[in-house]
């Protein structure tokens, strides 16, 4: 036989419960939580992740290596651009900088999956709120379970020596790697441009 214990009115338990319901106490807890999150962000323990929206264009910066060839008096930049066609890349010399721009398009499989869902990958907090509010829709037949690849427009800028023109620059795209070469001194690079290299006085790579 179980017994039931009744706490007297005005007990410590009741006082603590009343305190947690106080707006002042809740504001203090919120400030403490915000401070903890800020400290964790500064320490690199957590990071802010913006929930992606397939309807909003994104832009990313391609990774690259820069090689300084002192024997040939030239510089070579190698950009990581898998899945990008030559027709989707543009090279320009502008205000003393080499500008590399273009677009990497998502494969049709990913485009179809993104189009059939609201927003993925979903924020777990948002998803929990939807469930609590009874606004959880049925799962679609296709969705992106993990989304790590970057698609959309890209941009990268590198300073070049004064006097360098687009006709001094050679470029080639092979196996998803864009190789761009220019001389340290204008007019000193004598390489012959190949079929898929940048053409003189143009801003785009010729199609392969």
TrEMBL record:
<dbReference type="Pfam" id="PF00011">
    <property type="entry name" value="HSP20"/>
</dbReference>
<protein>
    <recommendedName>
        <fullName>SHSP domain-containing protein</fullName>
    </recommendedName>
</protein>
<feature type="domain" description="SHSP">
    <location>
        <begin position="55"/>
        <end position="201"/>
    </location>
</feature>
<dbReference type="InterPro" id="IPR002068">
    <property type="entry name" value="A-crystallin/Hsp20_dom"/>
</dbReference>
<dbReference type="InterPro" id="IPR008978">
    <property type="entry name" value="HSP20-like_chaperone"/>
</dbReference>
<dbReference type="InterPro" id="IPR031107">
    <property type="entry name" value="Small_HSP"/>
</dbReference>
<keyword id="KW-0346">Stress response</keyword>
<comment type="similarity">
    <text>Belongs to the small heat shock protein (HSP20) family.</text>
</comment>
């Amino acid at each position: 036989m179980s017994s039931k214990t009744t706490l007297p009115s005005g007990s410590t338990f009741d006082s603590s419960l009343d305190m947690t319901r106080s707006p002042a106490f809740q504001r203090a807890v919120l400030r403490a939580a915000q401070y903890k999150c800020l400290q964790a962000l500064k320490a690199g323990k957590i990071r802010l992740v913006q929930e992606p929206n397939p309807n909003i264009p994104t832009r990313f910066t391609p990774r690259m290596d820069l090689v300084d060839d002192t024997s040939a008096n030239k510089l070579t930049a190698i950009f990581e651009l898998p899945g990008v066609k030559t027709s989707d890349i543009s090279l320009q010399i502008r205000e003393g900088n080499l500008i590399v721009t273009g677009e990497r398009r998502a494969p049709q499989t990913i485009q179809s999956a993104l189009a059939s869902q609201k927003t993925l990958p979903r924020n777990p907090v948002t998803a929990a709120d939807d469930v609590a509010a009874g606004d959880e829709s049925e799962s679609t037949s296709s969705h992106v379970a993990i989304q790590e690849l970057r698609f959309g427009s890209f941009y990268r800028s590198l300073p070049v020596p004064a006097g360098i023109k687009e006709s001094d620059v050679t470029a080639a795209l092979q196996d998803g790697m864009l190789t761009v070469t220019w001389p340290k001194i204008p007019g000193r690079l004598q390489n012959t441009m190949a079929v898929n290299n940048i053409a003189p006085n143009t801003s785009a790579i010729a199609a392969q």
